[in-house]
Amino acid sequence: MTDLEPLEPLDPFEPLFNPFAPGYTDNPYPSYSRLRAEEPVHEHPFGFWVLSRHDDVSALLRSGNSVDYRNADEGSAARLQADAMIEAAGPATGDTIDAYGMSMLDRDPPDHTRLRGLVAKVFTPRSVAALEPFITELVDASLDRLADAGTTDLIEAVAFPIPFAVISRMLGIPETDHARIRELSGLLVRTLEPIGDPDLLQEINRARLEMQDVVRELIGFKRANPGEDLLTALIAAEEDGDRLSDEELVAQVVLLYVAGHETTVNLIGNGTLALLRAPAELAKLRQSPELAANAVEEMLRYDSPVQQSRRIILDSYEVRGRAIPKGAFVIAGLASANRDEAYWGPDAGEFRVERSGARNHVAFGGGPHHCLGAALARLEARVAVERMAARFPGLELAGEPVWNGRINLRGLSELPVKVG
Q1: What angle do CA 384, 390, 392 make, to 5 degrees?
Q2: Which residue in 80, 93, 139, 305 is deepest, having the highest Cβ count within 10 Å?
Q3: Coil, helix or strand at residue 256
Q4: Which residues make beta-bridge pairs with 215?
Q5: Which residues make beta-bridge pairs with 42?
Q6: Is the model's pLDDT at 11 over the cut of 70?
């Protein structure tokens, strides 16, 4: 069944949008299709709104509305979850301040403008481009292991190790810390999901505080032992006498570390699965390696590594004749927008490596909060996909993929493949 085939009639007693429905995280695209067709500006019974069409999502991302949970209505699910994270941390001890909510992902201008400007001074296109030889070495080593194994899990063998090693190297994180940081990161990304389990919330919160402590220790080490890495540069970054405070620095480093690899794991995994399920497209890529960059854009469009973004309305906001009130929490459906037939045409549900305009996807968000790491993700995915396609002409699925069960950072936890 393709995503564009006729859908079963909706149960009138079920919400139009229910991300907790059985099977949703394995394939949310039929749900997005219903939203676009029946109510593209959807007010959910639980008190939030969902936009699902490309033009509406793109406009919201650039609208100047807020990302700061503190602007959401008191009593809303989003506000309650954010407040619960802060309350669970308990009172600050000594000079330590909880860095939750201090990353540029959670701040509006002028705070966001200042934070992003300081980080962007060191996270430059030149610093990213300089990583290509290192990334190529990592990819080739991962593909060597894949060749030796014959049949293995591509997520564990390729999709995870590459971006994890790259962001660790960029930040100058010692290899001895990698195992625990990987565990903590896996929990931290759950903060981008709706959390209904109080025990899980506590576990995530403990991981968040531990990660902050790890980063503080690393910052202390780098202050005493500066190196040629992004963290050392962030510590020294200054503009017009302004620097990141200690807790702002912690928040940005945690964001860069987690976002710097978790999303790219999804990009490489989801994109490889799309290629394997479209063998004619994979053949085109093998025959014309120069298509790799556009193929990555199509991967980002076709099965977005981040499915949703958020905005909180600062004043009444009208979309398609409906007024969304001040304080409302709005889900911008990135993945839905990237499959919108009204924008992409009737083949929106098909994967095509030569798609014209594929880069017009909204997988990296838009507006002031457009993903700062977009160039790095594109580079890692391009090198991985191009070299994998060239090296393994017989690459194919060796079993059923297993999804990670996440609503927002939806990706594969297992992708069994064999090299043929």
Answers
A1: 95
A2: 305
A3: helix
A4: none
A5: 50
A6: no
| Residues present in the chain in total | 420
Q: In sequence order, what are the beta bridge partners of 331?
A: 50, 310
Classified by CATH at the fold level, domain 29-418 comes out as Cytochrome p450 (1.10.630)
Spans of all domains in the chain? 29-418
Is 78 in contact with 72 (CB distance < 8 Å)? Answer: yes
DSSP assignment of 85-101? HHHHH-S--TT----TT
Q: Is 191 helix (H, G, I), strand (E, B) or coil?
A: helix
Question: pTM for the whole thing?
Answer: 0.92
Query: Both tokens of residue 38?
Result: 């029946």
Residue closest to 86 by CA, chosen among 76, 74, 97: 97
C-alpha 406, offset from chain centre = 11
Q: Write the pLDDT tens digit of every residue in 157-186.
A: 999 999 999 998 998 887 766 778 888 888
DSSP per-residue codes, 331-379: EEEHHHHTT-HHHH-TTTTS--TT-TTGGG--TT--GGGS-TTHHHHHH
Amino acid present at 407: I
d(Cα 19, Cα 21) in Å, to the nearest integer?
6
